[in-house]
Backbone:
């Protein structure tokens, strides 16, 4: 068995990718699904699980491990963070999951690395959100942009905060202003990974990460130790019948 490289891999999935049959879920996962009463929440949960299982199956295959998808379990810890088990044993990977607008993102790293990821659709957001949830320097950075560039900037700062708060396993229980996002002045159409940093108040200090545009969305990934730009897990690496999709132009 080869040693795990400290790299981050990611996969995006769309709602159309999720099979109708549920035989890829474990009995415990099916029991969790049964508790979700709201259709949108069920759909998001299934989409996130499908993205994560595809990403994990591809990552395990690189270690010559090919368990059936239903043996790869993603269970929520008491704080809500997803944890991975293979045949009921803790897996060598840590993951983070996000879903937005019918699209899911899953980031996979070695288990010893903390990770948070987020996908957010770029859309106009109110000044009030910026003033209530951002730090003064972040507000100033947003004000340097107009139109679509402003929308990207707001989405990016929000998404990077969510990624950092997921890495901390606290989510929005923690004040969004306890995480300062430093990204400089990004161009609107970054379709390759670009670096970012998030300074978190308290025990963690700074974490580094990456962001990119993908179609009408922004993706962010932050990790507890610096890693190279995330590598995409391609459709051909997945155990799925879906065909590779062309990238939607930004
Ligand atoms: C975590 C949080 C920031 C996610 O934000 P969001 O915009 O609603 O949703 P996203 O799609 O980006 O992310 C959702 C995923 O975050 C993950 N998540 C949830 N709580 C988390 C936590 N404490 N730490 C890390 N990841 C977490 C889950 O995998 C979740 O997807 P799933 O429930 O389908 O598996 C937000 O839900 C939050 O702050 N929750 C507070 C913690 C909480 O109440 N958790 C719920 C169970 S205790």
Residues:
């Amino acid at each position: 068995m080869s040693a795990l490289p400290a790299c981050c891999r990611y996969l995006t999935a769309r709602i159309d990718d999720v099979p109708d049959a549920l035989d890829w879920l474990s009995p415990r996962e099916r029991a969790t699904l049964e508790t979700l009463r709201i259709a949108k929440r069920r759909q998001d949960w299934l989409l996130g699980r499908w993205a994560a299982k595809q990403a994990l199956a591809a990552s395990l295959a690189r270690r010559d491990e090919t368990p059936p998808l239903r043996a790869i379990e993603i269970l929520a810890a008491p704080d809500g963070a997803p944890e991975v088990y293979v045949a009921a044993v803790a897996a060598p990977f840590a993951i983070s999951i996000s879903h937005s607008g019918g699209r899911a993102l899953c980031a996979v790293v070695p288990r010893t690395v903390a990770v948070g990821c987020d996908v957010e659709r770029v859309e106009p957001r109110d000044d009030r959100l910026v003033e209530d949830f951002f730090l003064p320097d972040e507000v100033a950075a947003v004000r340097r942009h107009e139109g679509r560039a402003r929308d990207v900037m707001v989405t990016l700062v929000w998404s990077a905060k969510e990624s950092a708060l997921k890495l901390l396993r606290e989510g929005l229980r923690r004040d969004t202003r306890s995480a300062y996002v430093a990204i400089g002045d990004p161009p609107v159409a970054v379709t390759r990974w670009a670096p970012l940093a998030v300074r978190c108040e308290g025990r963690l200090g700074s974490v580094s990460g990456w962001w990119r545009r993908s179609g009408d969305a922004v993706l962010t990934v932050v990790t507890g130790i610096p890693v190279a730009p995330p590598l995409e897990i391609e459709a051909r690496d997945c155990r799925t019948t879906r065909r590779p999709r062309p990238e939607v132009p930004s």
The mean pLDDT is 91. The chain has two domains: 9-111, 118-223. Residues 44-45, 48, 79-82, 97-100, 118, 162, 165-166, 169-173 surround coenzyme A (CB under 6 Å).
